[in-house]
Write a structure and sequence with these properties.
3-stranded antiparallel β-sheet; 80 residues; Mth169, Chain: A; single chain; alpha+beta
Length: 80
């Protein structure tokens, strides 16, 4: 069984309040100079081989359900 990873991140121009909160907390904990943007990761188990057609299906699912493409970008990759 193969695994496909979909990483979803806010677009660069979109405010990321969760990332800002984590950035502030890291600074207070003694980790200055780090900047965080928080996103989502989906691990999708695929029966059989991961073909271009299957990857296209996962991309469509990501675009229609997993990511809000108005404010988020996503990346699809196969995990070996």
């Amino acid at each position: 069984m193969a695994r496909v990873i979909v990483d979803v991140m806010p677009k660069p121009e979109i405010l990321d309040p969760q990332g800002k909160a984590v950035t502030g907390a890291l600074g207070r904990l003694g980790f200055p100079g780090l900047s965080v943007r928080q996103g989502k990761r989906f691990e999708i188990e695929v029966d059989g081989d991961v073909t271009e057609e299957r990857l296209a299906e996962v991309r469509e699912a990501a675009e229609r359900l997993l990511a809000n493409t108005v404010i988020e970008n996503f990346d699809v990759r196969v995990e070996e």
